Amino acid sequence: MCCSGHVRRSTPPGGRLQERTPVTSIEDFISQYGLVQKIDAFGYLDYLKSNPDAPRKHGKVVLVTADTPLKASRGEGKTTTTIALIDALRERGIDAAAVLRQPSMGITAAGSKGGASGGGKASLTHPELIDWGLCGEMGAIEAAQNLLVSFAEKAVDDGKLDTILVPRVSEVPSRSLRQIAVDRGKGDVAERVVLTPTCELMQIVVLSRSMDEISERVAKMVAGTKDGKAVTFGEFVDLWRITGILGDAVKPAKTETVNGSPVYVHGGPFANVSIGIPTLVSVEMACALHDVVIVEAGYGTDAGAQKWLDIACREYDAQWPSAAIVVTRASTWRDDPDLAWRYPFHVQRLEGLDIPTFPLINLWDGEDDQIPALKATAKELEFRDPIIGNLYRDGGDALAPQLDAFVDAVTNGSMPAEPHSHKGMALVENVRWVAENAYGVPADRVILKDGFAESLQAAEGLCASAGIDFGSLALVAVKSPATMTDNDRAPEAERTVTLKKVEVHSGAGLVHVNLTTSLTTPMPKIV
Amino acid sequence: MCCSGHVRRSTPPGGRLQERTPVTSIEDFISQYGLVQKIDAFGYLDYLKSNPDAPRKHGKVVLVTADTPLKASRGEGKTTTTIALIDALRERGIDAAAVLRQPSMGITAAGSKGGASGGGKASLTHPELIDWGLCGEMGAIEAAQNLLVSFAEKAVDDGKLDTILVPRVSEVPSRSLRQIAVDRGKGDVAERVVLTPTCELMQIVVLSRSMDEISERVAKMVAGTKDGKAVTFGEFVDLWRITGILGDAVKPAKTETVNGSPVYVHGGPFANVSIGIPTLVSVEMACALHDVVIVEAGYGTDAGAQKWLDIACREYDAQWPSAAIVVTRASTWRDDPDLAWRYPFHVQRLEGLDIPTFPLINLWDGEDDQIPALKATAKELEFRDPIIGNLYRDGGDALAPQLDAFVDAVTNGSMPAEPHSHKGMALVENVRWVAENAYGVPADRVILKDGFAESLQAAEGLCASAGIDFGSLALVAVKSPATMTDNDRAPEAERTVTLKKVEVHSGAGLVHVNLTTSLTTPMPKIV
């Protein structure tokens, strides 16, 4: 091969160098990995950027979100809906694709939860691949985050750190790992282990648009402290050792529905304790390849959707949705009168943001006769006409005839404007804004728990000591997936939101605020 | 597709069902995984078994082993030799392939050790793939073994177990994990974490010839005890959850040298604390595809080679080698007079087993002028003519002209006979046999340390309580990689081997005996 100027050198996994002939299409960025394909999204998006005339689409993002679930392990059917929806849209001649997060293999394998890859007629061709570790992406992120902890231990030995703040991770759930002591019998150092999907490195992979950005973000992660002053990983870690491990993990996987519709799977942060959305590059790549891109965000509208809108769109330049679908099961919405306020709240909230919002009721067997009543209630609530179907039983066929208004909204709406950033807003003010807008609790009923002010001050001090701009961090509300307030069953005028503590993820550019409803730590027990 | 009797249903990873057209060759069992290929070796070997007329080769196994290293982190160059050797053999028109173990990514990534994929002209096309986690095989084994521990914890909660004996694993080294306490502040349960390559599940993957066998072996693993009686995982775990995770990990990877020679990589048990050999199926598959199969066993002849011969061949039906190559660096062999006895001991030991054994001296830069002296010493010691070269600098070219005798021995020797099993031999008698044969220490200088008899008795009791036949377990000597005896520098007549403790790996069918030189636990510190 001659040294022509057209020869492109790319640097995939582990700094491998490859000679490449001139790129002509997405195909040049796709590799087969067993039954799925992996796509070098960083390379493809970079190619589009440096070749403005290269063909591409300008797909619109549709958010699939849901009612707040009654409990963490009970899904409303977002993935089933997402799969049925792209099958139905493609049946109508629209080039639609879906972007999903990778489910946590540990939890699936342990039997604590079913898979998260649809079901019945709304299924993927190889759901077990998605559910059981895909191509090792989660394992690579786990190894890289744990390696950071090992390097932090070495930094303690070397006198560069005296306290480690970054947690070890495990993809396999084990409640006894919530609180551990390492160096038993010697130092007996207290530590905690969290589930891999909840860690900062997973957030970094979700939010970054290049390996260099990942490297820069890992460098900014706070490893721990020395004499009370924050020390970042950039101060003592060879960053190529971390990015080397992540070489394949940064590539979205492509699979398809049983009807052949394209589905990209990438990134797996939990929605209640993290950011709950697939990687930004997987969505952007899908938008360059398809006209409509259905993005599934985790748990309810108060969790993943809030995070897509207020974190990804406001602070990380993700695309504001052209429409939203809010999934519910008939029983979630209506059978518990104390909680029946939540579903209409979510629908109205999204409509209030100028996002055309379509209620979708995912029926289970034996519920078909509820359709007239559900329609009547939706009308009373001044919803758009609800989309109703048994998606497990009927798949996309249940949806296709009901999508006229949805398709009209998505295809005829103009590309949405960019939302304004909340950067610089004081943290408590920002939480109050979220409480008011996403949970329906006015600012004066946001309560600071004893110790919160100290936790906030400590977080601000930690950032200041390492030259991190605390005001530039985006807010992540950490809460139970099943509640939006301290008590969702309380009358509206009495609902409160209480802030418990603050944790900085400076590499990801995030600051976590735990609400009182947050779990102690995201390390479930096998049940 | 019609329901013809010719359609074959196979059940690869995670119980996926695939329709397959009739199988015609190995190609039907190969899938691309990025830059490497993965081969369904279980499926291919099963196909050969049920199609006795299908074309296949009957390749001969050659063992590449080495002098005992001066320290654990200093390699003699076995992988470099293996790569150069297949390149040289293929240059001579012989269809040769190599089978390597997968290096421990944690240690490579941590910088505690270089990679283990050759170097210079004796390199793989994508060494970084092999060194940095391959296709997630090690990660999958880690997740599966840790999931077993989580299930054991659940069994404790359910009253089925009171003590857990199976350790958690980590691919990432961290010395502080050697001894940990989980449930800190509540139960404060003492535990240990070991490196993934050292765990029983890795041994099971290495020794099994089908997913059913893996499943049966996992079922026989001792999870822990209840009222002093052993409880196996088969008593309380859904085994499909474990085999589901291992779906892709059981498939050997195929890559190649920079000269295009085929290299299979599969399994990564350490040689000093485990069995140190690649998976049996990867070697058997390679033997069906090539005429000469070079198998690299870990560390010195006293470690991986001893284990290939005495465990894999004697007890697990692996092929007895048709020749062996014992690699040394000139400096290892001769620069330390106290340890210079070890290299000739290894060469003579293998010759004594009727294995044509070829000394190979892997020169470093500046050592070419030592060749005459090395040859003279080899002659004095009555070795076969040594093969000498700078393999990093010259690759296979350094070897090709020196291989006449080697090729003659391999191609003209008859297929070796099967060795007799040691099953039923008393454990201490078996260790004495190994000490005498593999370490040169006579039976009367094998010492039982205080506590050993109790440890042995406890292991026998544990097995008896679960109906496991202790006498059927194959012996794994657990020792330092750098020594064969309690003190290799002592005069021959004073060298001893001391037995410290016994540990049962009943799923793998192994019993470990720790010698005094064994490390406390295989969890290194990052250096």
From TrEMBL, chains A, B:
Which InterPro entries does the protein's record reference? Formate_THF_ligase, Formate_THF_ligase_CS, P-loop_NTPase
Classify the source by domain of life. Answer: Bacteria
Coiled-coil annotated residue ranges, if any: none
Q: Does the keyword Repeat apply?
A: no
Does the record carry Transport as a key word? no
Q: In which pathway does it act?
A: One-carbon metabolism; tetrahydrofolate interconversion
What EC number(s) does this enzyme carry? Answer: 6.3.4.3
GO MF annotation, one: formate-tetrahydrofolate ligase activity
Please report the name of this protein according to its UniProt entry. formate--tetrahydrofolate ligase
Species per Swiss-Prot/TrEMBL record: Bifidobacterium adolescentis (strain ATCC 15703 / DSM 20083 / NCTC 11814 / E194a)
Q: What is the gene name?
A: fhs
